[in-house]
Specification:
By secondary structure, this protein is an alpha+beta fold. It folds into three domains: 128 residues, N Utilization Substance Protein A, Chain:P, domain 4 (2-Layer Sandwich), CATH 3.30.1480.10; 65 residues, OB fold (Dihydrolipoamide Acetyltransferase, E2P); 108 residues, K homology (KH) domain (GMP Synthetase, Chain A, domain 3), CATH 3.30.300.20. It contains 13 helices and 15 strands. A hairpin with a 6-residue loop joins β13 and β14.
């Protein structure tokens, strides 16, 4: 059994990556428990595994005392000196107490420990491997689905794709190859759990990095993304080179670069806009394809504004079911109120009339009070 166990541990280290020392330490602890369980021995037992020959020995550790009260735990100084003249009171001596049939128990225990350690080490290795892919895109194969998840095979682990992480309207069949974004890796009691998404905004970010070298090398930066998966997305980009047009770079010749991303996302519409340091310009760009006449910021809320558009552009600026305005607000971080030119002019006219009315009301009040306040000249003279 000894040589077989050593050979098995060596093979385990090579094939599974389970370190031999880790298994041996766990085996020694398990054998101590097995010995106590089978032989009812006290707590002073140690098990030693010979790493060269593979032999297993059990030792009872006893303390040297003047007077022995428990022979299982103590040894007299007289008996200790018979073994070695150097022993003193308080020293400990190990006595071998290996049972004849302990080999059978050791073999059973070793099997259990090895299997447990293999499972634990495999889980740890898988977790360590996939935690490095967190926040990255990987390609997986759809395996199956139930009422809660689509299960995607990533190689050594089965990732889960929840309903909220799926692109609305997208169908997944077994053996489909799909690109997914790993947004969370957990090391749970049941083993590593990998969560993936097709709807996450950062999936779009990673796709742009894959398709556009200038984004990957940092010449062009994605500043922000607003996405309604499966329908439409807005991406704000900026360039760190005066010679590179950020929008044109992302679109590519004849739209080839952005079209590759659109195809991967099954036709999701893509608006690429240029980020500007001037918030008014950025907000105007974000409302593309609508034309913007002016942007007025709320003096009482620095993250709110009113955007004025031509009358014939109002519905385009707001978008279907308010989508264009909603995405622009997410992209810029501003609360955006969109008004047509005629509506805005009417509102301004109403606001302009309000102070005039207040002023006239004030004059009427003063006129009404003046006669009572003004004393007759004769009265003043009499005084």
């Amino acid at each position: 059994m000894s040589k077989e166990l050593l050979n098995a541990l060596d093979a385990l280290e090579v094939e599974k990556g389970v370190k031999k020392e880790v298994v041996i330490e766990a085996l020694e602890q398990a054998l101590v428990s097995a010995y106590k369980r089978n032989y009812g021995q006290a707590h002073n037992v140690e098990v030693e595994f010979d790493r060269t020959r593979g032999n297993i020995k059990v030792y009872a550790v006893k303390e040297v005392v003047n007077e022995v009260f428990d022979s299982r735990l103590e040894v007299s100084l007289k008996d200790a000196l018979d073994i070695n003249k150097a022993y003193e009171i308080g020293d400990t001596i190990r006595f071998e107490v290996t049972p004849k049939d302990f080999g059978r128990i050791a073999a059973q225990t070793a099997k259990q420990v090895v299997m447990q350690r293999v499972r634990e080490e495999e889980r740890t290795n898988i977790y360590n491997q996939y935690i490095e892919y967190e926040k990255e895109i990987v390609t997986g194969e759809v395996e199956r689905h139930d009422s809660r998840y689509i299960y995607v095979n990533l190689g050594k682990v089965e990732a889960v794709l929840s309903h909220q992480d799926q692109i609305p309207g997208e169908k997944y069949s077994p053996h489909d190859k799909i690109k997914v974004y790993i947004y969370k890796v957990e090391n749970s009691a049941k083993g590593p759990q990998v969560y993936v998404s097709r709807s996450h905004p950062d999936l779009l970010r990673r796709l742009f990095e894959q398709e556009i070298p200038e984004i990957f090398d940092g010449t062009v930066e994605i500043v922000s993304i607003a996405r309604e998966a499966g329908d439409r997305a807005k991406v704000a980009v900026r360039s760190y080179s005066d010679n590179v047009d950020p929008v044109g770079t992302c679109v590519g010749p004849k739209g080839e670069r952005v079209q590759a991303i659109v195809n991967e996302l099954k036709g999701e519409n893509m608006d690429i806009v240029e980020w500007r340091e001037d918030n008014a310009e950025f907000i105007a760009n974000a409302l593309n394809p609508a034309e913007v006449v002016a942007v007025h910021f709320d003096p009482e809320n620095d993250r709110a504004c009113t955007v004025v558009v031509p009358d014939n552009q109002l519905s385009l600026a707001i978008g279907k079911r308010g989508q264009n305005a909603r995405l622009a607000a997410r992209l810029t971080g501003f609360k955006i109120d969109i008004k047509s030119e005629s509506d805005y002019e009417e509102l301004q006219a109403q606001l302009a009339q309000a102070p005039v009315k207040e002023a006239s009301d004030s004059e009427e009040s003063v006129d009404a009070v003046d006669p009572e306040l003004a004393a007759p000249a004769s009265d003043l003279d009499e005084e």
